[in-house]
Design a protein that fits this description.
With about 220 residues, the chain is mainly alpha-helical. The chain has 8 helices and 2 strands, in the order αααββααααα.
Length: about 220
């Protein structure tokens, strides 16, 4: 799951006026991946390229207990929710932000080869939809662009920022699916991923800023 991780952020922004800003929710949606790549850079979590590991993704995420165990994800979610509460003093906004962080683990559970855990130790978990492109690809597109369409319907505003966000999401997903696969894990790969997250988050912040006065349900 790549751009599909931002679907909960878009849905959360659509469902309630008390949701944090869209840029904040986009950070929440990929927070554990921000954490993973930072920890991988520091040598605390690990990935490697294993050609043929799954049909769609050759990355073996073989050690990521601090970010991609259910317990680890819950800790990140609680920390993010606590930070939001300190900043905005709104319990609902904090809970929504934390829920978006935690949703990341469950979306990964659908597509990953068994490399997720409950608390950092076996059994490994993952339904491996990356081995079934005809399921995984439509699922990711429907989740992401369905949530984007819902957000646009509920929160009115100019189309240009939304079109830019949607176009970049489509582009980076196409590169992820159809571009040359990585040949090795290392700082270049980690940095590329973080730059992509930052670009999309900046666009989401722009979209949210153009729609702050629109009406939302909830």
């Amino acid at each position: 799951m790549f751009i599909g991780h931002w679907a909960p952020a878009l849905a959360a922004a659509a469902v309630s006026k008390k949701s944090p800003g869209l840029g904040t929710l986009f950070v929440a949606a990929q927070l554990v991946d921000w954490g993973f790549f930072a920890l991988a850079w520091a040598g605390m979590e690990h990935m490697r390229v294993v050609p043929g590991l799954t049909v769609m993704n050759p990355i073996d995420f073989y050690h990521m207990p601090y970010t991609h165990s259910l317990l680890g994800s819950a800790v990140w979610a609680a920390g993010f929710a606590g930070l939001l509460w300190v900043i905005v003093r709104d319990r609902t906004a904090a809970m929504i932000g934390g829920a978006v962080v935690l949703a990341h683990w469950f979306l990964d559970l659908l597509v990953h080869a068994p490399d997720l855990t409950l608390a950092g130790s076996p059994p490994p978990l993952g339904l491996a939809l990356w081995d079934h492109p005809m399921i995984a690809m439509p699922l990711e597109l429907v989740l992401t662009f369905g949530a984007l369409a819902w957000y646009v319907k509920v929160r009115r505003g100019p189309l240009l920022p939304v079109m830019a966000l949607g176009g970049v999401l489509a582009l980076i997903q196409a590169v992820n699916w159809f571009g040359p696969p990585p040949t090795e894990a290392g700082p270049e790969l980690y940095g590329t991923a973080l730059i992509a997250y930052a670009l999309v988050t900046a666009l989401a912040w722009w979209v949210g800023r153009t729609r702050t006065q629109a009406s939302a349900r909830g």
